[in-house]
Amino acid sequence: MKGNIVVGQSGGPTAVINSSVAGVYAAAKKLGVKKVYGMVHGIQGFLQDNLCDLDKYLADETGIELLKRTPSAFLGSCRFKMPKIEGHEDVYEKVFEIMEKHDIECLFYAGGNDSMDTVKMLSDYAAAHNKPQRFMGVPKTIDNDLPITDHCPGYGSAAKYIAASLKEVIRDNESFGVEKPTVCIVEIMGRNAGWLTAAAALAKGEDCNGVDAIYLPEKTFDMDAFMAKVKHLSETKSSVVIAVSEGIKIADGRYVCELANENVAVDAFGHKQMSGTAVYLAAEIAKETGLKTRAIEFSTLQRAATHLASLTDINEAFQVGHDAVLAAEEGKTGMMITLDRNGDDPYQCGTSAYDIHAIANVERPVPAEWITEDGCGLNEGYEKYARPLIMGELQPLFVNGLPRHLVRK
Q1: Known catalytic residues?
Q2: Does residue 11 form part of some domain?
Q3: Sheet strand arrangement including 4-9
């Protein structure tokens, strides 16, 4: 590439999204790209010409290694929805004006479904107006719901945190061997796809019996069946831990969290803000059974735990950023880098570039064949898929007893 490049981050952060920025930077510098700019707060910041020079932070290997160990979006994220092209050409022209101003040849955008839609619209506009600039998508989402790619960077680390934390919750809940068990409801992120909640299945092992039930949004939630399950478990066990997705819905299409609060806020993309599912279910259990209950919401912890990140995830996040630059160097545009599994024993995974039009705005659910017949568990098919993604660790750099992070100034 003869010109400069820019990389941005969008949507919910992950424990490894910064590794993708590191991958973009490292590949670009190997190719001799003079300037690698970072968008400050994604495309929203870019439209305000808010950029930073990544040489300031990543010019030496120490900066790159520290960035790999830094959670959240180092460049700052956004949830800005690009408007439809028709009638908003001025917004798109602004993007190209800023790219020309800084001699930016290619824009790389790390994100999930909505971010890939941004890549699609920008590349479509460029093609329709004979613009030479290129646009590449770098996959990122703990929700693991992008299609085509085998899995998404960010998911492995979130799954590792969820499984490890649930083992600790189970151990804690088992400590009190009283006559009546404490019923612990653990709420895990996932609006329409239950990939994160499915990771609860990974807690089971030689030293842990695992959770007692797992409820995903892929299956309609039946409150009566749920309550019957809880009552049966409470009669046969001294400890009950249940994992639920924040996005589970009842038969009429309402989210369970809406049963407690009908006025659920929505974001710029029209997505309802999920919260309160575990609290509602725990209260209903206590009211109907008299059992002691506890509600736990992992919330942002499951996407920010770089101290427990999967090394496989870190390496793959770096790789998709790196390979996006190589694909752009070959002249590709309007594409996203996918992770392509080539083997399970041993686990092997490569990458390729895929047309963004088949990816943007498409959600991939947990396959029905991986969900147990009773609808409240995962089988060995899921574990075979997910276990390799949580393997390995990268030791944080500790200073004064705590992990050190790279901070943009």
Answers
A1: 143
A2: yes
A3: 51-53, 36-39, 4-9, 104-111, 134-139, 335-344, 347-355
